Amino acid sequence: MSEAKRLAAVKAIDYVEDGMIVGVGTGSTVAYFIDALAPWRDRIAGAVSSSEQSTARLKLHGIEVIDLNTAGTLSLYVDGADECDPHKRLIKGGGAALTREKIIAEASKTFVCIIDASKQVPILGKFPLPVEVIPMARSLVAREILRTTGGQPVWRDGIVTDNGNVILDIHNLSIVDPVGIERELNQLPGVVSVGLFARRPADVVIVGAEPPIVL
Ligand SMILES: O=C(CO)[C@H](O)[C@H](O)COP(=O)(O)O
Question: Any idea which positions bind substrate (predicted)?
Fold first, then answer.
């Protein structure tokens, strides 16, 4: 499966242009993208990173990491996903970086999502939906999720996000109304962000294959 991820990541380089600041996501597929971006280090203006993990890899390749507040609106954001439906709506956050990923996606004109074919689903929800939560609200939010969605929230024990928060993964959801669930969960006090990218889906999805499939 990693060869498919690599093929998708390499294809995403087609969207990189001279002088750009590139938004960079998190995960094993994005790691291939960062490696493919390395030869561009002197042609791009730098990268905005969604995690400490990606920052470390970008710096390893000598790519300058720029604060989003300095960068402003980005032309391009490249990131992976845990699930992708036919409308390019996504579940993300398997790597616990959903909040910063969501911020950068929102700040970007074009969001290119790079996946292997196993991530394509007709309806989102088989992959447990990650929700980043302020630590003191963990039990409260879990009870509310149980009451309002019927899904089973499971604390990702031992994981602390780059923002110092915890993750609840919601199991057994069939997400027929992704925009509605995203809105509803976002409103719960204590929720920092929800790993549903429905209000702001991907613009382009690249499925790793030989040749890559661009949707
Ligand atoms: O959302 C993410 C991290 O928070 C990742 O994009 C998602 O988990 C996919 O990861 P991978 O490319 O390793 O399969």
Answer: 26-29, 79-82, 92-95, 119
